[in-house]
TrEMBL record:
Organism whose genome encodes this protein: Marinobacter mobilis
Protein name as catalogued: Phospholipid-binding protein, PBP family
Gene3D superfamilies in alphabetical order: PEBP-like
NCBIfam families (alphabetical): YbhB/YbcL family Raf kinase inhibitor-like protein
InterPro entries: PEBP (IPR008914), PEBP-like_sf (IPR036610), YbhB_YbcL/LppC-like (IPR005247)
Recorded superkingdom: Bacteria
């Protein structure tokens, strides 16, 4: 199976139009255009009954105490965990493209609802937890929300956009399901997968 993510080249920086946060010299970070990239695919295996898209960042600090704190840095040696940015499942088997901006076009304070989207079923991404303590932003963030790594992180972040061809028409997920639930539901049903990885940072020393 072959995947193409328009505007994102393997191993290269992700364009700011796809980011939740963009570099701001005065305030470190401003909200970005937050558009989902176009994802297109072909060479689909026989027997495919649906697709799933998972985008995640494996470089997120496991401890957030120093994240975005003046006068501090997030050490590159800190253990890292997965942060899910995009969960889209039950994409019909005849679909071969998710258009740019179809699942996200701008930062939506308090998030976007889980459940049926324009194409497929949206899962809940980890901005739901990350923004839970911010009264202006707290809510359920489902579908796509793009990169916004800590501006004081010593580590360059990598963003994996993965496409899965599945042998079931539906993963049977509902409600506010998350990335862990998607991975568990896909077990034993993956016919093929493909991945594109881009990078992103808000740290001026790494840009």
């Amino acid at each position: 199976m072959k995947i193409e993510v328009s505007g994102i080249t393997e191993g290269q920086p992700i364009p700011e139009k796809f980011a939740f946060g963009v570099f701001n010299a005065d305030d470190h970070m401003s909200f970005g255009p937050n558009r989902n990239p176009e994802v297109a695919w072909d060479k689909v295996p026989e027997g495919t009954r649906s697709f799933a898209i998972v985008m995640f960042d494996p470089d997120v600090p496991s401890v957030a105490d120093d994240v975005n704190q003046e006068g501090k840095v997030v050490s590159r040696d800190l253990p890292r965990v997965d942060f899910f940015h995009w969960l889209l499942v039950d994409i019909p088997a005849d679909v071969r493209r998710i258009p740019e901006g179809e699942d996200s076009n701008g930062v939506m304070p308090k998030g976007k609802p889980a459940g049926a989207g324009a194409i497929g079923l949206r899962g809940v991404n980890n901005y739901t937890q990350f923004l839970a303590g911010n009264p202006d932003m707290a809510g359920i963030y489902a579908g796509y929300d793009g990169p916004c790594p800590p501006w004081n992180d010593e580590l360059l972040h990598h963003y994996h956009i993965e496409l899965y061809a599945l042998d079931v028409a539906s993963l049977g997920l509902s409600g506010e399901f998350d990335g862990v639930a998607v991975r568990e539901a896909m077990k034993g049903h993956i016919l093929a997968s493909a991945r594109v990885t881009g990078t992103y940072t808000l740290n001026p020393d790494l840009r």
